[in-house]
Design goal:
heterodimer, A: alpha/beta, about 25% strand, B: about 90 residues, alpha+beta
Chain lengths: ~375, ~90
């Protein structure tokens, strides 16, 4: 590229979504400038679990998560040990017969749509995860789900040799989108042919009225206990918790790290942007986890932290052109609002963005994720609280 | 002369003076095989580690005691019949 030539796209945000988008655009030959207020993968990307999971609450959630998980599985052979990719599978635990019945419905629906998934009776669940308590009804297993260490995967995506060019700029906070580019906190402007906003909740400071709300979550990591937990385990009730839109909820979610450490979640809170660990919420979350894993209170905890999921009203991300008039740059694009699925859906999001920006076809229908749908949502109900 | 109690370190029955810590008991048991070295655990990359601070801060002396992992050897007094597992097989003949 000629010295001083304009980048084709400036990507705001070097989290897993911004990194995946930059990688995909550059793979199509574009020159991409990535700016982040801190560094690669330091925000919500660093706070999460990195669970690559098929979710099927809505057809659109299923389409994007299942496709994206396939893209991760295809990418996995090129990743290194430091990216901590493990195809550990997900075990969904059913506490009672009601949850078992719901699991059967999900298992059937997933199988019909080509996702490997089988039911576990109580004995099979115990065999798969001996650390779970006796008396659970059973569950289902999704063997091709996986985990990845997202911050290092984001750095890897930005560093891959591609047809185009990626330049990463850390400590560069975007403060405004202007007619010709993005103005940074140091007063300089990065001019570019297009602007892709991929900085999660921070996007609300750049685009007024962008309907994203933070959903606070707690996580805790333990010392190493290799072999204690083999799969990512969630309670089937997790989905109920995940889709609440007010109040504080917790659900059992544990992940075995390749080191033998355990990541334990999960919690959801609204109407707060305070990053402090809240002992009452953490305690409630761990009590819930202990109800499924009775040996858990005897483990050594090393650290707890919080993060903020960027959530939309309908639970789907905003992928596509910004609403007309909402930005002063005429080619402004969004890849935000992935809530708790940003790591899973980053690769699919990147493909959708590249296809739309380059006017190509994508393998899944982009319509459910278009920001334009928010025009109609705005008239229905105010965002939470 | 000090009284001794018996415990199990890496599958080997050893008698150590009463009133000492697990870390001291391991040192006592390992003296034949490791000289003055003491090994308690392995790092995540497999490196051998041993007690450093002796006061419960550095976490290098973690061992499994009676099946419970990550107990601090330097902060735990021995008890008769205790079963201690370190990261080595130094208790077994090589």
């Amino acid at each position: 590229m000629t010295q001083g030539a304009l980048p084709d796209v400036v990507v705001i945000g070097a989290g897993i979504v911004g990194a995946a988008c930059a990688h995909e655009l550059a793979a199509h030959g574009l020159s991409v400038q990535v700016v982040d207020r801190a560094g690669i993968g330091t925000g919500t990307t660093a706070a999460g679990m990195g669970h690559l999971v098929v979710m099927d609450d809505t057809p659109a959630e299923f389409a994007l998560s299942a496709w994206s998980r396939q893209l991760w599985l295809a990418l996995a052979p090129r990743l290194l040990a430091k990216h901590a990719f493990v195809r550990c599978g997900t075990v969904w635990a059913a506490a009672d017969e009601e949850e078992m019945a719901a699991a059967r419905v999900r298992q059937h629906a997933l199988q019909v749509q080509g996702i490997a998934c089988s039911m576990l009776d109580a004995a099979q669940l115990h065999e798969a995860e001996p650390a779970l308590r006796e008396g659970l009804a059973g569950g289902m297993i999704v063997p091709d789900d996986a985990v990845v260490y997202a911050p290092s995967a984001a750095a890897w995506l930005l560093a891959q040799p591609v047809a185009g060019r990626i330049e990463m700029r850390a400590d560069a906070q975007a403060v405004a989108i202007e007619r010709h580019g993005v103005r940074l906190a140091d007063g300089t402007t990065v001019a570019a042919g297009a602007v892709l906003v991929a900085n999660g909740l921070d996007a609300t400071a750049l685009l007024a009225g962008l309907p994203l709300v933070p959903k606070k979550g707690h996580l805790l990591i333990t010392d190493r206990y290799p072999g204690l937990v083999r799969h990512q385990i969630l309670e089937l009730g997790y989905i109920k918790s995940a889709h609440q839109s007010s109040g504080t909820s917790v659900a059992f979610n544990v992940q075995p790290r390749p080191t033998g450490q355990l990541l334990i979640g999960s919690s959801r809170q609204f109407d707060t942007t305070d990053p402090a660990v809240e002992p009452a919420v953490l305690a409630r979350m761990l009590r819930r986890a202990s109800q499924f894993m009775p040996g858990l209170p005897a483990l050594n905890a090393l650290r707890a932290w919080t993060g903020f999921r960027p959530a939309t009203q309908d639970g789907l991300p905003l992928i596509g052109p910004a609403l007309p008039g909402s930005s002063s740059h005429r080619s402004t694009w969004l890849a935000v609002g992935h809530e708790g699925l940003g790591v899973t859906t980053a690769l699919g999001t990147a493909r959708l963005i590249a296809a739309q920006m380059l006017g190509q076809a994508a393998p899944i229908d982009a319509a459910p994720y278009l920001p334009a749908r928010l025009g109609s949502l705005d008239n229905e109900s105010a965002p939470h609280g | 002369m000090a009284e001794h109690i018996e415990l199990d370190i890496d599958g080997r029955r050893v008698a150590v003076p009463t009133g000492v810590t697990v870390a001291a008991a391991i040192a006592h048991a390992m003296v034949d095989t490791l000289g003055s070295g003491v090994i308690t655990r392995r790092s995540v990359s497999g490196a051998l580690r041993g007690p450093l601070c002796g006061m419960g801060v550095c976490q290098e002396c973690r061992v499994t005691i009676n099946g419970r992992a990550h107990r601090l050897a330097c902060q735990t007094p021995i008890a008769a019949g205790m079963r201690i597992e370190t990261a080595t097989d130094c208790g077994a003949p090589t």
